[in-house]
Amino acid sequence: MKFLHSMIRTNCPEASIDFYTKGLGLKLIHEKKVPEGKFTLYFIGESEDSAMIELTHNWGEREYSNGDQFGHLAFAVDNIYEICQHLSDSGVTINRPPRDGRMAFVKDPNGISIELLQKGSALPLQEPWQSMENIGSW
């Protein structure tokens, strides 16, 4: 398993990017605009291979507090189905099942959202996960 990123929501992406790049010396590694979701993601880190900060700018006006500004931790996993089965067998609720073979969300005991991402390409769809399309959300 590899730690990938922590997500923080921001209403001021320019100031946030300046803080992490000019202030802390990190680099803007990748920017992804998602018009259909009305948000932009900015990945900031030392390099493409380092753990990153994902700044998420949801378009529109909304204030965030410390309670809802932090989003999630993300980990790359070798087999999304095996880790989700292991967590489920251990009593962890799978909030967003890996129905697409590439992504799932769970919560840690403190209520922190954890994103699990399949390394490489998505795995072929697999039961019981693929039939869980209406279970949970992140």
Please sum up the structure shown.
By secondary structure, the chain is α+β, with helices and mostly antiparallel strands. It has helices at residues 13-23, 66-69, 80-89; strands spanning 2-9, 27-34, 39-45, 52-58, 70-77, 94-96, 103-107, 113-118.
Describe this entry's structure for a reader:
β2 and β3 form a beta hairpin. The longest helix is centred in the N-terminal third of the chain and has 11 residues, at 13-23. The radius of gyration is 16 Å and the shape is globular. It contains three helices and eight strands. Strands 2-3-4-1-5-8-7-6 form an eight-stranded mixed sheet. The protein has two domains: 2-71, 2,3-Dihydroxybiphenyl 1,2-Dioxygenase, domain 1 (Roll); 78-131, no CATH class. Residues 134-138 have low confidence and may be disordered. The chain has 138 residues and is of the alpha+beta class.
Separation of the first and last Cα atoms: 21 Å
Q: CATH superfamily name of the largest domain?
A: 2,3-Dihydroxybiphenyl 1,2-Dioxygenase, domain 1
Q: How helix-rich are the residues, as a percent range?
A: 10-25%
**Which CATH C-level class of the largest domain is it?**
Alpha Beta
Bin the strand percentage: 35-45%
Please outline the major beta sheet: 8 strands, mixed
Rg, please? 16 Å
